[in-house]
Amino acid sequence: MNKMQITQASVPEGVIDLGIGQPQVDLLPLDKMNLAWEHQLKQANPEILQYGLQQGDARLRRELAGFLTRAYNNAVGPESLLVTGGISQALDLLCTLLTRPGDTIIVEEPSYFLALRIFRDHHLNIVGTPMDENGLIIPALEERVKQYEPKLVYTIPVYHNPAGVTLPAQRREDLVRLSTIFDFLIVADEVYQLLSYADPPPPPMAFFDTAERVISLGSFSKILAPGLRLGWMHAQRQLLEPFWMCGALDSGGGSNPFNAAIVSSAIELGLLQENLQHLKTTYTARRDVLCRALKEHIPQLNFTLPHGGFFIWAELAGRMAAESILEKASHHDVGFQPGVLFSSMNGLGSFLRLCFTYYAGEDLVKGVRRLAQALGGTR
Amino acid sequence: MNKMQITQASVPEGVIDLGIGQPQVDLLPLDKMNLAWEHQLKQANPEILQYGLQQGDARLRRELAGFLTRAYNNAVGPESLLVTGGISQALDLLCTLLTRPGDTIIVEEPSYFLALRIFRDHHLNIVGTPMDENGLIIPALEERVKQYEPKLVYTIPVYHNPAGVTLPAQRREDLVRLSTIFDFLIVADEVYQLLSYADPPPPPMAFFDTAERVISLGSFSKILAPGLRLGWMHAQRQLLEPFWMCGALDSGGGSNPFNAAIVSSAIELGLLQENLQHLKTTYTARRDVLCRALKEHIPQLNFTLPHGGFFIWAELAGRMAAESILEKASHHDVGFQPGVLFSSMNGLGSFLRLCFTYYAGEDLVKGVRRLAQALGGTR
Description:
Two copies of one chain form a homodimer. By secondary structure, chain A is α/β, with parallel strands linked by helices. The first copy, chain A, folds into two domains: about 15-30 and about 275-375, Aspartate Aminotransferase, domain 1; about 45-270, Aspartate Aminotransferase, domain 2 (3-Layer(aba) Sandwich), CATH 3.40.640.10. Helix content of chain A is about 40%, strand content about 15%. Chain A contains twelve helices and 14 strands. Chain A has helices at about 30-40, 60-70, 85-100, 115-120, 140-150, 170-180, 235-245, 245-250, 255-270, 270-295, 325-330, 360-375, and strands at about 15, 80-85, 105-110, 125-130, 135, 150-155, 185-190, 215-220, 230-235, 300, 310-315, 335, 335-340, 350-355. The first copy, chain A, has an eight-stranded mixed β-sheet with strand order 2-9-8-7-6-3-4-5, sandwiched between helices. In chain A, helix 3 packs parallel to helix 4 (about 115-120) and helix 5 runs parallel beside helix 6. The radius of gyration of chain A is 21 Å and the shape is globular. Chains A and B meet through helix 1, helix 2, helix 3, helix 4 and helix 8 of A and helix 1, helix 2, helix 3, helix 4 and helix 8 of B.
């Protein structure tokens, strides 16, 4: 078999691209998936290959509800979950069913760059709202809500991609209060909720919902495997109805019933919990390595230690433009994501996003040394 | 474990619902999927769990291109394929990327009822166009195209669901010619293309494309397993670009890379071909049983023998309303899909759709006998 590109990230030999926001391939649990598959196979249920329920596999929702209840230390019922094909598919479906072209969606500045692409594909009017070290700033959001009357507010309230910050409980309550006054829905992308390297964060936004205003989005991509394309919506039941009534999920028989069945076994066997624990240990160490190396080799970078997630969001001193360094960095065989990518208003030029999950420790240090050379020295 | 509903079709004990358009659970190839999985596992490639390419798994596209080339007896290249999460997801994405609310889509009368739901979810203006025993009638379509200036024409050109008919080569050429004159795209839902019980049908619509006007949609749902949520677009490369450039597939890393890898093994090992052959033999026999039973027990039903697919599309004599029999049928523990469901203009009241793939022979006969009682006798 010829060598062909299989995965999305394609890095030339020898390059360390700290811009890639993915788990390292070595951390993907093929053996655990095999155990889960064998467990399914033993049950001899060809039904896992049939059209499934629009709301998603019943066993997965039951197992996941139990898993999340333990993880959040807060009760989650299977009826409040809808299985999705990952957060990307969920965002896409959500735009289809809840918006029309020209509707306004308010996003954080910065925000997840590919979510912005999904919103653009749906021709939404994207308006940015500023954040500080505690996530989105409520009075600033209120101003924009009054001015733009958004249909949706898209937030990444926990271990933000790229900013790393987490919205405290008080702001979460304030956000929900705003949503009831100004009649918008909150879409909370909580893909990193369970990847905590310190005290647990506040519970997901869905727990703050007092009036059917919040859809929390979760995913197996960061805690098990992205290639499964499996995630969930967590919301009050009535908010989920438009989704399980929609044509695409009715016609297709729900999202990924086959994978859902295998993952339900992975949860039942304790493999998901084991995998999550392993990732947390690994990523904590890698985060520390990256942060230490940055402090040592690039003291002119400002950043705050993230308590979870995948990323360091760092600002160059003197408002230097990150994009202007990209080419130089490539000469030093190192890459990163420039901040402007995460801006809905063409800002954030002096920021860069560095990921600590795709490379092991020694490569992270090597990458930082190269970046230091690109920033400081000449070639 | 409590008994819970797993599959989409939920039929009360003892009822024979000839309306269900799904494969029988017993025909779903769990053992073959296990062989394919073991083949993947032996290759020890955790990459199958990673974010994949937007266009879809490269191995699947290569294997599928070879498989389709043999099946169609016409060359298909991997570059002309894009992996989808099944036809339902493909239709949804297609509406997002190629239409705006209020755009017109022309559909056949009758058409696949859940596709109509997807189009409604995208707020399209749905216009029906009549068919005869050879599929859509070109002069009638031309009239509607002139009047409504559609963005898309959605056709099921082969073993139509529900009508069972197939569009001949000449009409396919005429349809493409119209699309170039009146500037619309043809979306061909060819989910039953490979399920032929007689001479092969004309090749997929994509082979008739002379001017980047046709997107052919295929699926593993009917030839392997619906629960995989895996299918493909087949079109000239430039037509596929908006899809692999879109936010949802970029963010998610393509459609279902894990399943795609397993299915690529199923093709490589010859299991897909074997499964398809088994289904064709089984379904041919079931079709014949259903047709014979209908002729014997319900002579007042008019239908033509379908040469492929899942369905008999039958008309009640004397323009009797099929819906009016539904309740009576339920008293006789038998079900069907009333024709009106497949109409975009609230017509087709005297038709019913009967599926011959979900039940084995004796149940099909039993179902027909019950239907005959519901139609003719009193309870």
